[in-house]
Amino acid sequence: MCFSATASFTASAALTAAGIITTSSVKNRRELPLAAMPFIFAIQQFIEGLLWVNLSHGGNHALTYTYGFLFFALFWWPFYTPIMAFLLEKDKRIKEMIVLLWIIGLFVGIYQYVLFIQNPVAGQIINHCIFYTIPWPIRLVTATLYLSATVGVCLLSRQKIVQLFGALLGIFAAISAYLYVNNFTSVWCFSGAILSLVLCFYFKSNKKQKF
Questions:
Q1: pLDDT tens readout for residues 2-26
Q2: Do 102 and 150 form a contact (C-beta atoms < 8 A)?
Q3: I want to staple 1 with a disulfide (CB 3.0 to 4.6 A). Which of 153, 168, 188, 190 is the partner?
Q4: Phi-psi region of 155 (alpha: psi -120 to 50; beta: other; left: phi over 0)
């Protein structure tokens, strides 16, 4: 995350605990991808913690950790989020739209990550945050497609917990873009990780929806 290695490792530990709660509370296998999100965010934050340590102590693996973090940030989330939403959805028309957004997410995820692989630059500490150099030749289009496959697909869902998560993601995307425009990737990913803690309350609640 931004700010420090300690923050990233602390977030990773909290998310691991949250993942244990959410996955152990699953009663329907279709919920598993949603329940697993804290675990995945925990891995991503742990990798960024390692990057922080590497950059702070002059290590030689900064690019390796950057590859790892951006795999999740650029490719994994626009690929995975529509799958999660699809498995929870019952409305046929919405499922068809989610499939379309999954194709878009797969395309934009591969596109972004391949561009980075072709021009790899290790993350850097700038303004007390980690800055990632990401080549976006058509930035507005790419960003729109990315948000459609992550935030948009969640808002499209008829499952309230998914809608809530998507709405919060969208709000924090706007806040991150406004306050941390140069460190957006790191800050928004951290925001998404923290927001996934909301899933603990959902899975432990007696109001959990049935499928």
A1: 568 888 899 899 999 999 999 998 9
A2: no
A3: 190
A4: alpha
